[in-house]
Amino acid sequence: MRLLFLLFALAASGWVSAASARETLRLHPKNPRYFEWRGQPLFLLTSAEHYGAVLNADFDYHRYLDTLAREGMNHTRLFTGGMYVEPPGAFNIDRNTLAPGPGRFLSPYARSDQPGYTGGGNKFDLDRWDDAYFARLRDFMSHAARRGIVVEVNLFCVLYEDPQWQLSPYHPRNHVNGLPEIQREHVLTLDHSGPYLALQEQLARKFVQELRDFGNLYFEIINEPYVTATPDDWQRHLTEVVADAQRRHAHPKLISWNIANNTAVVSQPHPAVSIFNFHYASPPEAVAQNWGLNRVIGDNETGFRGTNNAFYRMEGWDFLLAGGGLFNNLDYSFATGFENGTFPYPATQPGGGNPQLRREFRTLGEFLRSFPFVRMRPEPGLFLKGVPSTHTARALVEPGRSVAAYFRPYLVTRFSTRWTGFLEVPATGEYTFYTLSNDGVRLWLKDQNLIDHWNDHGATEDTARIHLEAGRRYPIRLEYFYNGGQSVMQLAWSGPGVGRQIIPARALHPPTGTGSGLRGEYFEGIDLKQPWRERTDSQVDFTWGTASPFEPPTGQNSGTLELALPTGTWQADWLDPVSGRWVARQTVTARQGRLSLHLPEFTEDLALRLKRR
């Protein structure tokens, strides 16, 4: 009785409510570019599975969450399975957790007694919830909370292609509710979705209610809405649904928007949104471009840069040292049967991940937590001179007290190219030109725009025909941009007496008219505006994949750095981000606002911790 009285008294005093607030993830009150959780400042950092932990019945999420916690990761993403699931082989992912085996897909919707679901088992009943699914969801959230892991609950995902739509519980073939046929492109709209919009609203409200008592989450409205141009009014409407569903909650959950691949300037953000997430955000331009939002900027999906650890390690360091508050590497070593993150995936995977990479991320987390990071901000003017020309330097600074700095090889992840010169054909007749590109391509010949496919797309072939005469030189211009994925740009032809082939160098001449090949002008960024390098390319036959068009610099880097820091004595500790070892220590004195530091030899990347003594 005395205990009951004490609990009532505590509740009346507001103590219980305060404890609940402490357990709920929120923006940090002193710096909303980071989080606060359980009374502690927080950034989210992880290398996590492909979002199917709950919807895939064969996935042992207890073992998975144990692995994340043991290896120092504090975040994971989760797709709900309400309207999206993937077929085996989607996106060339082996053992994809978002592609359950036949009959092993778990959805929030209950199964009916009628067979015929495309993915195996009975059809769904969209009027009934699956209690077993939500019990599994709550158990997942409980285990994550006990392990200090914050979950992104991603309510919706765009239907990229017909195979995803054909597996969706919303597809008319897959449920017993007799809803009308609808085009895949219309499902996520306000004006063409018909009764499916009400289903989406109900689904969002159901998840808000089911997860009301958990504090270790935030809601992301939809994954990659920009890929299929999901209307902005639909996303705003669902944002308002989620906000309204938790309007009377004492401690509502944060809401996230997924903005773009790489970067974009956020304009007219919804006032209920606190987190702005990007994919493949390297270099981390998205942080600086959206700094004025005074909200968390995240990089919550990596990939399409090969399977080597280096790129993803550097992306994480770069993003968090730019002032980002969330980083999630998409880790393909987590798979069904390999929930400890040891799956030896093939080299064809669209990304990486392994225990060593997670150790490298743990080093990053420990490094950043050794600073009062909520009191720090990016300072691009810190480095006065001495940064190797082959590298970039990034720093977070607590004015007058501490510096967290990171050096990595100079990176161009998005570029564009213009090839110009002349084309000469061996015989008169009609020629077919073929371009294979990922991403945008434009081709002019005889001042005619023959091919214009100037947008983001996977490896795609475009063709055009034109009559050409032998003995003449025709001006040719080919433009290309790469915005992520597996870069490829090839220019081929076929014609009289010529089978299909990459156009040979002997048929191409630079603008000077002398020699063979085309002049290639390379630009940073995708808009052909910022010159990078120039060279003569004998042919246009490139499958760069995730590599740079140019060989990376080699050799070690060392020298003297000069930094703009106030007068006083500073201690400098240098960290190897791969091994996690502190490799050098210096005690130096800044004079007249300048501090000189010896830069240790290193081959890839290097981190610096500077603290005033």
Number of strands: 34
The best one-word shape is: globular
Radius of gyration: 27 Å
The major pleated sheet works out as: 8 strands, parallel
Q: Order of strands side by side in the largest beta sheet?
A: 4-13-12-11-10-9-8-5
State the end-to-end distance. 56 Å
Specify the helix fraction band. Answer: 10-25%
Mean pLDDT: 93
- The CATH superfamily of the largest domain is Glycosidases
**Broad structural category:** alpha+beta
CATH architecture of the largest domain, by name, is Alpha-Beta Barrel
The residue ranges in which pLDDT falls below 50 over 5 or more consecutive positions are: 1-17
Return the CATH topology of the largest domain. Answer: TIM Barrel
Q: How many discrete domains?
A: 2
CATH class of the largest domain equals: Alpha Beta
Q: Classify the beta-strand content into a percent band.
A: 35-45%
Task: Please report the number of helical segments.
Answer: 10
List keywords for this structure.
eight-stranded parallel sheet; 613 residues; globular; alpha+beta; 19% helix
Structure summary:
The chain is of the alpha+beta class and 613 residues long.
Folded structure, characterized:
This protein is α+β, with helices and mostly antiparallel strands and 613 residues long. The chain folds into two domains: 323 residues, Glycosidases (TIM Barrel, Alpha-Beta Barrel); 131 residues, Sandwich (Jelly Rolls), CATH 2.60.120. It is 19% helix and 36% strand. The chain contains ten helices and 34 strands. The strands form seven sheets. An eight-stranded parallel beta sheet has the order 4-13-12-11-10-9-8-5, covered by helices on one side. Strand 24 and strand 25 form a beta hairpin. Helix 6 runs parallel beside helix 7 and helix 9 packs parallel to helix 10.
